[in-house]
Design brief:
33% of the residues lie in helices and 16% in strands. By secondary structure, it is an alpha/beta fold. It is globular. The two termini are 25 Å apart.
């Protein structure tokens, strides 16, 4: 299965996927170098994920996108009101990609876009809410809860080996706490991936029965 992993970060969502041929796109060179170290078998593109999606979406069976979330975040909005950050407009990239994939994905392609719950009413109704995330997809994702102790983002430290990722061995300028906080739980990434695979298998079975 050919998979496009956009805004890949260090690959939390991708960590438990198997039997896949992955192209990952990450714009930050330091973060991309960590991804490459963790997944040397993947093709890594250091560049603009939004632009890459537009030009290459037809080439993949499954597309996962996690566009930047700060401009949609309730926490960031409240902190801006308190004077901790400058206020910023919501980044419409998120909604552009959802509209685009809903319209242009073929019947043989699957996509999912993940982001935080925004501080405003979502412009497009999500497919499902899992943990602190909203997901938009062209396949059914059943509701579930991870059987784990919930991590508290405010308590994450740069030395934490969160989900098995050890950032202490990397000499980088980028905020390690932010990298860890932004990471999708690998179990959540696997769950969504398996939901998609179940539908793909069902479609193949139905097609086989149709032509028998």
């Amino acid at each position: 299965m050919k998979v496009l992993n956009l805004y890949a970060g260090i690959g939390g969502n991708r960590k438990l996927w198997t039997d896949v041929e992955v192209t990952a796109v990450e714009i930050n060179e330091e973060i991309a170098s960590i991804y490459s170290d963790c997944f040397p078998q993947d093709e890594l593109i250091v560049g603009d994920a939004h632009d890459y999606l537009l030009k290459h979406y037809k080439e993949y069976n499954f597309i996962w996108a996690s566009p930047p979330c700060p401009s949609h975040s309730r926490v960031r909005m409240m902190a801006s009101k308190a004077g901790d950050y400058e206020p910023i407009f919501p980044d419409m990239t998120l909604w552009q990609e959802i509209f685009f994939l809903q319209a242009f994905c073929s019947d043989k392609q699957f996509f999912v876009i993940e982001n935080v719950k925004p501080y405003y009413e979502p412009l497009i109704k999500e497919t499902v809410e899992l943990e602190r995330h909203l997901f938009w997809s062209n396949f059914r994702i059943n509701k579930f809860e991870l059987e784990e102790v919930k991590r508290h983002h405010n308590s994450v430290k740069p030395t934490d080996k969160l989900y098995g990722y050890d950032l202490t061995k990397y000499n980088i300028q980028h905020d390690k706490i932010k990298i860890l906080r932004n990471m999708v739980n690998p179990d959540l990434g696997l769950y969504v991936f398996e939901q998609m695979q179940g539908i793909m298998r069902k479609r193949k079975t139905n097609q086989t029965q149709l032509f028998q």
